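Teaching soon. Got one?

===
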Amino acid sequence: MIQPVCLITGAGDGTGAAIARRFAAGGYRTALLARYQDRLSRLENEIEGARGYVCDVSDLEHFRATMARVKTELGAPHVAIHNAVMAAFAPPLEAEPEKFEAQFRVNATALMVMAQAVVPDMLAASEGAIVVTGNTAAQRGIPNFSMFAPTKAAQRILAQSMARDFGPKGVHVAYLIIDAAIDTPWTRDTMFPDKSDDFFCKPSAIADEVYHVAHQDRSAWSFDVEIRPDREKW
């Protein structure tokens, strides 16, 4: 049997790597897209069937070329995960329009470019899935999120447009809202050094949910999926 392919943007050491491990455990070959070769080389050595591709998704032409390489070298992706993210924070009067536009490119425009590359093959097969990792910024705006939240909201609405277009044709699109701080060394050490383990959402648990959503029965597809630790206030 030919192994299915899962393409993952933003294949970092936290959520992206955990998603790659989960899909590899499910029998997938994984195409890992990230900006740094050392990270990709490490993941290739750790994850069976993984292949790394150095790619900055904000460089749209290079992103398109990279996805074409994935199709040539591994095959057309059956699942695509848009996990790449760019985030910068400031209140509205201190926001930098250039950073604002840069975040749109990574968070929203790259999602459209990814879909244009992978969905035609999914439609031809009448099956496939796209899962976008998001957060509560997609649902509300607060002062310091004036640059970030609009880009995540645009990302979610784009994903919804895709879901309503592609769903009846056999391609499942879903948006996963992670209402939590994710348990990575960076978030622990830099943002929440005093928090206990139960404050964080585990990357492996996020990956399990992404895998589940990508394999839902067609009679019970989700679009908005929310996950949070049991102690998170909401």
Remarks:
- The mean pLDDT is 95.
- Helices lie at 15-25, 37-46, 60-73, 97-125, 148-166, 185-191, 203-214.
- The CA atoms of residues 30 and 50 lie 5 Å apart.
